[in-house]
Each structure stands twice: as C-alpha cells, then as structure tokens.
Amino acid sequence: MKITVIIVRWLMGLVFLFASIAFFYMSFKHTPMPEMKGNAKLFMDGLTATGYFLTLLKVTELACGLAFVIGRFVPLATVVIFPVTLNILLYHAFLDPEGLPVAIPLMLGNLFLAFACRKHYQTLLAAKIA
Fold first, then answer.
1. What are the distances in angstroms from CA 41 to CA 34, 35, 59, 97, 115?
2. Per residue in 75-93, is it b (16+ CB within 10 Å) or e — as a string?
3. b/e string for 2-16 if b means 16 or more Cβ within 10 A?
4. Which of 58, 74, 104, 118 satisfies CB 3.0 to 4.6 Å to 23 for a cystine?
5. For residue 1, what pLDDT is reported?
6. Is residue 78 within 8 Å of residue 113, measured between CB atoms?
7. For 10-23, how does the pLDDT look when each residue is reduced to its tens digit (9 = 90+)?
8. Is the distance from CB of 74 to CB of 9 less than 8 angstroms?
9. Which pLDDT belongs to residue 79?
10. Residue 30's pLDDT is what?
11. CB 68 within 8 A of CB 74
C-alpha cells in the first residue's frame, strides 16, 4: 500500500506540475492558448475574463503538485486539490470528453490518496467539538 501511495502521489504531482508550469510558460512567453470551440471556449473565456481565476488555479495546482512530489503536507494538498480535480472531471465529462482518459484517473488518484490519508481527517470530520 505504501508503494502505491508513493506512485499515485508522484503521478498526480507531476500532472499538476506539468499543467501549471505549461500555463505560466505560455503566459510569460505570450504564446497563444490552444484553440477551443463551443461551450468549452465559452467556459474558458469566462475564466479568463475574471483576470485572476486561472492564475489562482494554476498556483494552487503548482503548490499541491509540489506537495505531492516532495511528500510534505499530502493530506492538506489532497483536500485543497479535490475541488480542482472534481472540476477537471466535470469539465471533461460535459464540455470536452476527449480529456476523460486523464480526468478519470486523476479523480481516482485523488480519492485514493484521500482514503490513504483518512486517519488525518478524523478530527476534521468530527460531528461535535469537545
């Protein structure tokens, strides 16, 4: 189980690191983003129009990716990245089904890491405080 956790943690960390570094590289080099169509384009145009959201998203991915690769604060990174992973899955399920082969294992990996870290969440999920 310990080896599986390390492998899943590393794979998820590398995916998030690659995605965030590629975004910042394209932003700094003023490289155009890949062309999108339909509702996926409308969705991304909305996120881009906010002026802050994509940067916040990619900084979060970078921080959690580093945490996964380094192996520090993994329970926290698992919780913080879960809404991002869920949104990636839903985006690809409804707007761009071609990305599902990456989105589904990413979500399964996040759920697996959450299960592996479940003892760290016991006090967080307590119904009452002392």
1. 10, 8, 22, 14, 35
2. bebbbebbebbeebbebbe
3. eeebeebbeebbebb
4. 58
5. 86
6. yes
7. 999 999 999 999 98
8. yes
9. 95
10. 75
11. yes
121 vs 20: CA distance, rounded Å: 27
Give whole-number Cα distances, 51 to 18, 64, 81, 84, 90, in Å. Answer: 22, 22, 21, 18, 22
* CA 18/CA 104 separation, integer angstroms: 17
Instruction: Give the separation between CA 46 and CA 75, rounded to whole angstroms.
Output: 31
Confidence at residue 60, expressed as pLDDT on a 0 to 100 scale? 97
In the block, tokens 């604060």 appear at 73
The arithmetic mean of pLDDT across residues 30-40, rounded, is: 80
Q: What is the DSSP string of 39-102?
A: HHHHHHHHHHHHSSHHHHHHHHHHHHHHHHHHTSSHHHHHHHHHHHHHHHHHHHHHT-GGGHHH
pLDDT, greater one: 125 or 78: 78
Residue 92 confidence (pLDDT) above 80: yes
pLDDT tens column, 62-81 = 999 999 999 999 999 999 99
